């Protein structure tokens, strides 16, 4: 199925602004470019275009809320500068299995200030000497490269966004839970005072 038809199917009865996640894996892309995706998808947070034969991401529309982009198993060899221009809030980028051969092709990713996780498994660039050290030096904003930090510590589940519930959401949830518990304690304490029998007047 081609990409435009898949987008139409994914929409079902929704309008583009309603969509937060869009999976277009294994679709056909004419000319090796993204097709049918427009700037109307203003609230899109996750886009997956795995194994669709992409040569270029130049046709990406501006998606200001996109956080996670899956581009693995394509034929991309460069042209990554468009990502910083179109996806200013990107935090997770998967380029595994593409045709990236040298560190210089990753230079445009320096402009992605929010990028914290980058995957380059099965790209030729990973065979270079001091590959990990070079990438972390080039992209100091990164926390994880190929699933591990600079100390070779694996990313934990709490470091990854799951079903749209990320670390920031968890912190808010913890604060709300703490406030609720304190309110419950105050209420029970007040109730206990109300139920305490009066002290008899001995005078």
TrEMBL record:
<comment type="function">
    <text>Multifunctional protein that is involved in the regulation of many processes.</text>
</comment>
<dbReference type="InterPro" id="IPR001611">
    <property type="entry name" value="Leu-rich_rpt"/>
</dbReference>
<dbReference type="GO" id="GO:0042393">
    <property type="term" value="F:histone binding"/>
</dbReference>
<dbReference type="Pfam" id="PF14580">
    <property type="entry name" value="LRR_9"/>
</dbReference>
<protein>
    <recommendedName>
        <fullName>Acidic leucine-rich nuclear phosphoprotein 32 family member</fullName>
    </recommendedName>
</protein>
<dbReference type="InterPro" id="IPR003603">
    <property type="entry name" value="U2A'_phosphoprotein32A_C"/>
</dbReference>
<keyword id="KW-0539">Nucleus</keyword>
<keyword id="KW-0433">Leucine-rich repeat</keyword>
<feature type="domain" description="U2A'/phosphoprotein 32 family A C-terminal">
    <location>
        <begin position="128"/>
        <end position="146"/>
    </location>
</feature>
<comment type="similarity">
    <text>Belongs to the ANP32 family.</text>
</comment>
<dbReference type="InterPro" id="IPR045081">
    <property type="entry name" value="AN32"/>
</dbReference>
<keyword id="KW-0597">Phosphoprotein</keyword>
<dbReference type="GO" id="GO:0042981">
    <property type="term" value="P:regulation of apoptotic process"/>
</dbReference>
<dbReference type="InterPro" id="IPR032675">
    <property type="entry name" value="LRR_dom_sf"/>
</dbReference>
<dbReference type="GO" id="GO:0005634">
    <property type="term" value="C:nucleus"/>
</dbReference>
<keyword id="KW-0143">Chaperone</keyword>
<keyword id="KW-0677">Repeat</keyword>
